[in-house]
Amino acid sequence: MKITRTNIPDVLVIEPVIFKDSRGWFMETFNERDFYKSLESLNLSMPKAFVQDNHSCSSKSVLRGLHFQAAPYAQGKLVRVVRGAAYDVVVDIRKSSKTYLQWFGIELNCSNNLMLWIPEGFAHGFVALENDTHFLYKTTDYYHKDSERTILWSDPALNIKWPDLGGFKISEKDSQALTLESVI
After folding, report:
1. β-strands 169-170, 52-58: how paired?
2. Active site annotation includes 67
3. For a Cys-Cys bond, which of 38, 74, 93, 108 suits 81, CB 3.0-4.6 Å?
């Protein structure tokens, strides 16, 4: 696997090795030993073990986020798209970080097979760029309803450049989310 640091050095883009032949293709989507060795080689902290996998399906223009779980139930996430395409966004909400309030966005799709490692301390969201977009998450902690937080996806303080899809389909919960200043 090839790992690339983003403008937020703790957030990583992971490109798996894909083996193709006349039958189709094969890729290893997660290898704990190699993942931890890669983090160690970059002098990044080791996350807790992955304990939960989630799978969502969205139609085009569905925007989900910006979500995170507060400590002590904060989650690291390894995310990827297995069908369709999504524009994925992470926001650094670690107050002591040099990249506090910076965001990173990338297209994840079933053609590029990229994955994104999002450590604890980040808000996360995405917008589906195609119908029937399937998004997979591996998380380092279990979902804990009372620790769930949502930051308004359009908070002007963050100035996230979402793709122009002519409008978004947003859940009531996400559309009524508070600004970053009110949440953190």
Report:
1. unpaired
2. yes
3. 108
User: Domain with 21 in it: what CATH number?
Assistant: 2.60.120.10
Tally of domains within the chain: 1
Q: Is 137 a catalytic residue?
A: yes
The domain in which residue 106 lies consists of 2-183
Looking at this protein, which amino acid is placed at residue 39? L
Q: In the predicted model, what is the mean pLDDT of residues 51-76?
A: 97
* 65: region left, alpha or beta (phi > 0 left; psi from -120 to 50 alpha): left
From the list 55, 87, 137, 143, the catalytic residue is 137
pLDDT of 25-45, one tens digit each?
Answer: 999 999 999 999 999 999 999
Catalytic-role residue among 36, 55, 67, 73: 67
Neighbour tally for 156: CB within 10 Å: 9
